[in-house]
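haha ok so turns out i had the wrong file open the whole time. this is the CORRECT one, sorry everyone. sequence first:
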Amino acid sequence: MIIVTSITSWNDLIVDQGMDLTTIQDEQIGKLEGWCRKHIKSDFEASNLKSIEALVMDYLALNSQSSLSAVVDTDLGYNVIQKAAKLGFDRFIENGLKTLNEAKAIKLINQQTKYKTTALHLAALGGFFPLIEVLLEHGADPNIISSTGKAPIHLASYINVSNSKEKQKIQKKCIRLLLLKTNQQTAEACDDMGISLLLSVIPFDDEKLFEKILLKCPNLIHTKDLHEQNALHHAIMNQSVHIVRYLLTHYSHSELITERTDNYSTALHLAFRYGTPQIIELLFANHQCLDKRFLNSLDEHQKIAVSYLDKQSSNNVESIETFMKKRGIDKNIISQTSSNNVLFKPQFF
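then structure:
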């Protein structure tokens, strides 16, 4: 047993709290939730009694081990503290670390799994802010790189589109804390897919966070992924309007705007395929996007950007001529070989 306690089963906890499972009330569920927050996970929110029982059973299984370093997942190489970190058990980890001297605690916290991740990596991936604070306070190293080239801050920055706005808010809080603790060299590292910290936060569409990263790591503005997609390309494909506006404002004369991807797509190609009308308008407000050579650039499908023109309705597709006229752009700027003066409907590849 890691933390000495008289509670070794679910029933022990129920009895300890003076409850009867057959007559348990809502206020008693709140009492159990409070116990879990004190002993297991400080930000735990119970959806029902079963969720409390599941949490307690995970805690009991870990606490029954001989030490925090005991291996509990041989496939991934997780020890107790790493498994607890994956679950976000900040109170359990903090109380467990109190049983160790400082040197041993630091060594254990920074021990790596089969894939070279640490407890801090796992806490960052889960977006567990209270746990990240605990681990950093006890000596966790934020600069350890995993086997896939990721530091904890890189894992914290990966957004799940299904996450709620509140969850994303906590994720950004984790990123800001880790940014303070991570050295510049680590923060500027790219993973094995060529994704940098700057590229990975673009889906949040938070220009303040984006700028904060650039202030620490200005060289990241030049990073591209393995498909030669830069920050503007990522912002367009993720429909991150605020980031697109930021880049066009602060890098209006940069090659960032005219660079192509590995399939020869320009920012305009991507905007017409994946962007929004607002993003398209932002690009056309930039002088580089009005350059004749840029407008006539062909992608790997031998198409110019405006040939992907789509008004989101098959009954309301503008012609290239109409589109250009509305924006005061000379229609003759488009080469005759590229434009056949027809209506272009959505293209999918």
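The longest helix spans residues 165-181.
again sry for the mixup
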